[in-house]
Amino acid sequence: MNAGTGKTALITGASSGIGQELAKLFAQDGYNLVLVGRSDDKLDRLGDVFKNNYGTQEITVIGKDLSEEDAAQDVYNQVKAKDITVDVLVNDAGVGLYGLFATDTDWEREKAMIHLNVLALTQMTKLFLYDMLSRNEGKILNLASLLSITPTPLMAVYAGTKAYVYNFTQSLVNELKDTNVTVTALLPNATDTDFFHKAGAENTKVTDEVQDPVMVAKDGYNALMAGKPKVIPGGFKNKSYEVMSYVAPQEALSALMRDKMSQKPDPNEEEHSNGLAWGIGIGIAVVAGIALGYAYMNTNDFTRARYRYKAKSLGDTISDALSSVVDNVVDSVVSAYNTTKDKASDLTHKADVVKEEVMEEEVVS
Ligand SMILES: NC(=O)c1ccc[n+]([C@@H]2O[C@H](COP(=O)([O-])OP(=O)(O)OC[C@H]3O[C@@H](n4cnc5c(N)ncnc54)[C@H](OP(=O)(O)O)[C@@H]3O)[C@@H](O)[C@H]2O)c1
């Protein structure tokens, strides 16, 4: 018998990308499925594939635009009306939006994104978590992102929504620690789905290093089943980004992400020389991150916490030291200028006195 036989997983955003790969894993493990999204025809077809390929017993499709007011409540009511018990909730549905916040992006799309990525996810969690707690059993997976832990110019609101998801999820991990209900945050790096195209970011540099949604879903699924608080799929390189997000000053992270989110250079144009400087800078940062990450991974929890604290203090100290160096240089230049100006005016004064004395002597003689 499969692990999920007789149990039900509700998945939002199962019509494509990471959500679809997650739904497949649940189907393979014998779960009944509730699939929620706007494209109910796509979800119906997916349900048929799961029934044919994996013998899935029960598939319920709920067509819903989760960016609408109280959409989550409506989904919950429909699930209750069908007398379905949700054992696993996967909040995958989400969208992004690319562009400068002040001048490029459209507020209506931003509002819908906040609604979907933040409000719907929170309300779904609230409604289903309460039922899970009353049974003292259940699992929740929330789709955060590696952008949850770095400022991200050109996707500022999206990154803000994902920072919320991550922070919210980690807070719940603590609130639920004495229960049998677990909540897990999945933090993928750029993944090869339709996400960037829909967000208008398909031509950005970050899309050159996308990872496989099958691998992302598998890592998320395993972490969810193990009840882990979070997972960053993609091995050591992506985990080193996490370490970097603790140690690097925020300004440096923003600059790094700004570069990653910028448009790819025209292949016919020569790379600007500062591209090389960026490459070297990013290379050094990644190597430093990898080294720190290696040390970090090979220690126990207590030492890790100390590393994190020390690394953060070190980051703050470096940042403070840099600004104090800049302040000192500026102070020295200003004070040298003032001293020189004073000396010059002193000399001018002395010269005037001597001139007057000479003139007086000439008059006397
Ligand atoms: N791809 C990445 O690089 C990446 C990285 C980190 C995190 N993530 C996160 O991973 C999650 C899945 O994204 P993906 O990469 O798999 O992108 P995707 O292929 O575009 O999938 C997005 C899913 O969300 C659903 N959705 C969008 N708007 C909706 C709405 N208003 N109501 C209900 N469902 C809606 C879509 O279904 P319909 O359009 O059919 O409704 C689709 O199933 C998102 O939360 C995203 O933020 C993605």
UniProtKB/TrEMBL annotation:
InterPro entries: NAD(P)-bd_dom_sf (IPR036291), SDR_fam (IPR002347). Belongs to the short-chain dehydrogenases/reductases (SDR) family. This is SDR family oxidoreductase. Keywords: Membrane, Oxidoreductase, Transmembrane, Transmembrane helix. Pfam families: adh_short (PF00106). The chain crosses the membrane at residues 276-297. SUPFAM superfamilies: NAD(P)-binding Rossmann-fold domains (SSF51735). The keyword Transport does not apply. PANTHER family: ALCOHOL DEHYDROGENASE (PTHR42901:SF1). GO terms for molecular function: oxidoreductase activity. CDD domains: SDR_c.
